[in-house]
Design goal:
This protein is 36% helix and 22% strand. It is of the alpha/beta class.
C-alpha cells in the first residue's frame, strides 16, 4: 500500500481510496456520536444547509465547530457530546476542516473518516481492502496539522503492519498546535470547548468501528462499519 498525504486544497484529483483525518475534533465527535447510538451523520457544505436540513427533518440534530450558534445542538466538543442524547438520531455535521475534506473526496470508491479513536478499525478496513494506493487527507491547518498527520501516519503504518506503537504519534498530537489552541480556549473560558476534549481526542482505538462516507439521496452520509 502506497500512502500519499495531502491537504484538502492540494488534492490532485479524486482518489480511489481516501482516509480523511480530523483528530481535533470533527471525527472524534462523529465517532463519539456513533458510540452513543447515533444512526448516521449527514455532512453539510455550510451552516445554513445544516440548519435547513435540521428544519426539514424533525428530530435531526446539528453540530458545528467554533462557539455555540443558535439552532445547533453541539459545538464540536467530544466532552460536551457525552451529555447529549443522540440515540437513534441523525446528526448533521458542518466543520471547517473535517467535513470539508470528506466532501472534497466524496466521489472516491471508498472514503473513510478517521481520528485516533477509530484508528485501528480504519487500518483493518484498509488491510482487508488491500488498495495499491491510499490518499490520506490532512484536513487541519490547510494540510499542516501535525495531530492529523500523526494520526494518518499511524493508520498508514498499522494498515501494513498491525501492532504499530501508538505512543510517539499520540505525543506529537498532544504537542500539536491544535491541542494548544484547545487548551488556550479552555483557559480563556471559550464556550464550545471543554477541558477533557484533548484527552478524548487522544484515546487511541477507543471504538470498534470505522466510519465510511458515501453518497445517499443527494447527501454525503457517514455510517459506522464494524471492522
Amino acid at each position: 500500500m502506497l500512502p500519499t498525504f495531502a491537504g484538502t486544497a492540494d488534492l490532485p484529483g479524486t482518489p480511489a481510496v481516501a482516509v480523511v483525518v480530523d483528530v481535533m475534533r470533527a471525527f472524534t465527535v462523529a465517532a463519539g456520536a456513533f458510540a452513543q447510538g447515533a444512526e448516521k451523520i449527514v455532512l453539510a457544505e455550510s451552516r445554513d444547509e445544516a440548519l435547513q436540513l435540521k428544519d426539514r427533518h424533525p428530530g435531526w440534530l446539528a453540530f458545528q465547530d467554533g462557539p455555540p450558534l443558535p439552532g445547533f445542538d453541539l459545538a464540536n466538543s467530544p466532552a460536551q457530546l457525552r451529555s447529549l442524547d443522540v440515540r437513534g438520531r441523525t446528526v448533521v455535521q458542518k466543520t471547517t476542516a473535517g467535513t470539508v475534506g470528506a466532501l472534497a473526496v466524496a466521489d472516491a470508491e471508498l472514503v473513510l473518516c478517521a481520528s485516533f479513536v477509530v484508528a485501528e478499525s480504519t487500518a483493518r478496513v484498509l488491510r482487508r481492502r488491500r488498495p495499491q494506493e491510499v490518499t490520506f487527507v490532512i484536513t487541519g491547518e490547510d494540510g499542516r496539522a501535525d495531530e492529523d498527520l500523526a494520526c494518518a501516519q499511524y493508520i498508514a503504518g498499522a494498515a501494513v503492519a498491525p501492532g504499530v506503537e501508538a505512543g510517539p504519534f499520540l505525543e506529537r498530537a498532544r504537542n500539536s498546535n491544535g491541542a494548544a489552541r484547545l487548551a488556550d480556549g479552555v483557559r480563556r473560558g471559550y464556550r464550545g470547548v471543554h477541558p477533557d476534549d484533548v484527552e478524548l481526542c487522544l484515546e487511541v482505538d477507543a471504538y470498534p468501528f470505522a466510519m465510511v462516507a458515501a453518497r445517499e439521496d443527494g447527501h454525503v452520509v457517514v455510517r459506522p462499519v464494524r471492522a
